[in-house]
Amino acid sequence: LICMGLYLIWDNIRFIIQPYMNSEIYKIISNFTEIIPQMIVGIAIIVIGIKLIVGKKKEVDEDD
C-alpha cells in the first residue's frame, strides 16, 4: 500500500511539472515510472509463488 501511495503521489507531481519540462525528458521519465511498478509487482508475484511452493514442499516432507 505504501508503494501504491508513493506511486500515486509521484503521478500527480509528474502531471503538475509536465508543462515545465522538455517533452523528451518527460517521455523518458514517464516511461521509466510506468515500467518500475510493473516490475515490482512482477517480482513480488514470483517471490510469493516461490515461497508458496517451498512452504508446501516442506509441509509435504514433514508429513512423510
Detailed description of the structure:
The protein has 64 residues and is mainly alpha-helical. It has one domain (2-63). The protein is built from two helices and no strands. Helix 1 (2-17) runs antiparallel to helix 2 (23-63). The protein is elongated, with a radius of gyration of 19 Å. The mean pLDDT is 84.
Gross morphology is: elongated
Work out the strand percent: under 5%
The helicity comes to over 70%
Mean pLDDT: 84
Outline the low-pLDDT stretches: none
For the biggest sheet, the summary is: none
How many distinct beta strands?
0
Radius of gyration: 19 Å
Structure classification = mainly alpha
The domain count comes to: 1
Order of helices and strands: HH
Helix run count: 2
**Distance from first to last alpha carbon:** 39 Å
